[in-house]
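One record is kept unedited as follows:
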Amino acid sequence: MRVGVIGVNGIGNAHLWALKKLVQEDLATCTAVCDVDPGRAEKAAADFTVAAFTDTKTMFASGEVDAVIIATPPATHGLIAREALDAGLHVYCEKPICPTADEGYALARHAHEQGRVLAVGFQFRFHTGYAAARAAAAEVGPLFRVQLTATNWFRTRAYFDASGWRRTWAVAGGGVLMNQAIHQLDALVSIAGMPATVRATVRSVRHDAEVEDDALAMLTWANGATGVVVASLNEPAGSERIELYGERGAVVLTDGYAVRRVDHDDAQQTCDENPDEYPTLENEWHDVEVARAPSEWLDMLIASERDFVLAATNGTAPSVDGTEGTRAVELANAIYLSSYYGEEVALPLNRGEYPRLFEDLATRAVAFPTRGW
């Protein structure tokens, strides 16, 4: 399969390197690059011996590609993906698929109508530590409490200065929830399912940015389970931790690869039938073996690209299709809505509910609080 990469700065450049592995596996070949910066496009084309384009429509009509990888700023994803699908191409779209869930779900429907594969770049689905936690969580019974800490995304002001669009709603589509911790939100949804309600607060604390750099959300699920999400770009000593508590055990994932698990008797039965007022429960935690990838980020990227190429080649569904890849966006949208209106928000969201707020944020008609600690 002939693949073109759109946007060859940052993650787009990483995709070019990942494609080299698929070339070695005789699955795909990179045939073109496209970037609005002519110098960047020409350099990437020379480095990887492919055709260079500065306009996506010209690339789509060139006959050089069967599929594209979209690695441009988030708010541009929807239009580029739709035009690629209309041109008969398969699409791998970097996360987030779109800033609003309405647009993401509509794009998923469009891909289905066009008979083309649309995959979303949630590479953490292929992370060995997250996979181990997901498998373990499925064995400890229905979850009744989850906690997600995603403060391992510390960013300096230089990060926003290097690419000014990162600080804007209009192009970035959001801050820590949409562009960094969206990976962990996707992991949470893939393990625990979509919550039923959200109550949240987001704000910009340390950075000169429109988008949020700090978020706190309280979640409830339809079965009564509860959860807390903390995400931040502001903590130099930040961490990554997911705690999953089920009726027959618990699982904790720390900093990617450290997975621990404990198994115990049914929690409700123990609560109801244990005769001791202050029971001593012999719960023994043990480490879950996790295979370490030689190169964490590159290996995840290669695995997600391979999954996409095989789906497009074989006519099957990718691991994260457009619908699945929109759920974390819908959760982020709900968090934004709850924070702005100061009230609990129910999921699934009503159509049009968040796009109205996003439009106001993107045009700077409204803003979230900006203040220090």
The chain has two domains: 2-124+296-320, 128-294+328-362. The chain has 14 helices and 15 strands. The CA atoms of residues 31 and 64 lie 6 Å apart. The radius of gyration is 21 Å.
